[in-house]
Design a protein that fits this description.
four-stranded antiparallel beta sheet, 2 domains, single chain, eight-stranded mixed beta sheet, disordered C terminus, Rossmann fold, globular, alpha/beta
Amino acid sequence: MTNQTSDVLDVTDLRTYFPVRSRGLIPRTIGAVKAVDGVSLSLDAGETLGLVGESGSGKTTAARSILMLVRPTGGSVKIDGEEITDLSARKLMPIRRKAQMIFQDPYNALNPRHTVGAIITAPFKVQKVVPPGGVKKGVLELMERVGLNPEHYNRYPNEFSGGQRQRIGIARAIALRPKLIVCDEPVSALDVSIQAQILNLLRDLQKEFGIAYLFVAHDLAVVRQISHRVAVMYLGKIMETAPRELIYSRPLHPYTHSLLSAVPVPDPKRQAHRKSRIVLHGDLPSPIDPPSGCVFRTRCFQAQERCAVEVPPLVELAPGHHVACHFPIAVEDLPARAEVQALTADDPQEATPDVQIVSREEAADGAAGAAGKGRGAQEEALDEGGAAEEGVSLNKPRA
């Protein structure tokens, strides 16, 4: 994570709390929902940072807080070197030319009373910008660039499919050639084939205009396709950040391991051989009263006494690889509560060791039951479930 002034986006210790008020004639503030709690990240021009995590982890709130759509409680947000957290709505207007957003729901993100032409024209009118050749010519060029036909200019959003509506939203976002676009799950509501088209379009636009993307998603396969770096978020905090290749091949945080193990494999043969699902028991804790110390400790198979009393800082353990964990783990040395066994395969050289994660109780039961029953009892003691896709797995690298 860099703090260079040349960064398109530089976020430091971002906090967004929502007050919890009591009921009655005189409401009092009795607590706060800590939706975002100390997030720090940065983005260079032409780079994509994927922000992932399960539902309720604070990804969307962080994204909206960065663009001041939700006012943060504290911290620093710099866009193109300019601090924006203290700017009024009027002073934020010039910043909107540099930073835009693509919203998750293409059906509600567009005004149903406006035509496509009016929707894409709006940024030019608001910012009082006239592109070369006039506004209409600029709008038609944008429509062509995102794959819309000129005859769509006078049509309304209800006449389009979800993928086409998202293209309209993308055209609106890139109209003023921003340096940063925050993508809030832009393909989660679309079919898989349409998702690929939109991702390819975003990639092409990035190459053409040098746009930086903050890409919020919960689909790890999508994030892997488009991101250069990945940040893993849990309960308002960043757990791990690293280049894409490191996150998917050599994660260090237990939460990242569990997320990757939940990614299904489209190959039935590999799926049948895999038994590496890490099942997190319990629900996401309440952000009103998060756990002390490490917020992930209540669901972590690595948790120890230190995790309850000391908040782990986000430290760099390898070049570009930051982890907030007292006991980071690599694939090759998972904790004592993990069992490793070799898979059988038709080709012996194709067999790879597979990681089985079990709880302390399961490990004890499995060891006792396996004492006189051999390998079959050990397998029954292990959790069975989904697995990560090829390249997104907990398998050790082959020898």
